[in-house]
Amino acid sequence: MNKVLRVIVILVVVLVLLVAAAAFILPRVIDPNNYRDEIAALVKDKTGRDLTIAGDIGWSVFPWLAVELGETRLSNAEGFGPEPFAQVNAAEIRVKLLPLLRKEVQMSTVVLDGLQVNLARDASGRSNWDDLVPEASEAPASEPAEAAGGPPIAALAIGGVQVHDARLVWDDRQGGTRQQIDQLNFELGAIGGGEPVDLSLALVVTGGQPELRSEVRLIGEISLSEALDLIEVRDLNVSLAAQGEQLPGGALNAALSAQLELDRNQQTLSLKE
Prior knowledge:
alpha+beta
C-alpha cells in the first residue's frame, strides 16, 4: 500500500511540475501577436468584417487563463461609413484555470477601457448589425440545455466589471434621430458570492432637435437571486442635470432616492421611496 501511495504522490508532483512549467514557458515561447493575421482572417471568414488589432495581445495560462488586448477595431457593415462598428482601447479578461476543471467559472474584474459602439439604421430600415445576427430560420432546433451548450456551469463568480470612458451612438437615419452616450463609466462589484453588489454609473446623453444634453449619475446596491429572476436595487440614488432650449429656464436638475425590485416571474417592477 505504501508503494502505491508513493507512486501516486510522485505522479501528482510530476503533473503539477509539468503544469507549472508549461504555464511558465508557453507565454514566453508562443507570442499571440504573431497570429494577428490568422485571427483577422477567421473573423473575416465568419462575419465578413475586418478586425484590426493595433495594440499588443498579452496572455497567461496559470493560475489565470488571461487575455489582454490593446487597441482593437471591428469594421462597420457595408454602406454605413468608415467609422468602426466597435472598438476598444484596452480590454482585460482573466479566468482561473483550475476551477474550470470543476465546471466553475471564477473571473477577475473584467475591464473595458475606451469602448465605442456605433449602432445605426439606414433609410430602408437595415441595421449595421443585421449581418452579425443569424436569421431566425437558420437557428437550430431546440435541444436539451446540456447538449446545446455543453456541460452546465456549476458556479459563476466575477470579481467585478469596470467600463471606463465608453461611447455608444444610435444613428437612426430612417427616423431622422441621433442619440449619443459619452463619458460612460460603469462599475459593478464582485458577483457570485450571494452578497449585495455595489453599483455605480455615470454618463452624458445628447440628442434631439433642438439638442438636449443630460448628465446622469447613479449609485446603489444590487442583489441578484441565484436564478436571476429577482433583481433588487437598494439605496438607489439618481441625479439628473439637463440643459436644452426646450426646458423651462433652459435647465433641469432632479434627484431620486428609492428602492427598486424587478420580479421577472411576476413580470412586475416596483419602486419605493
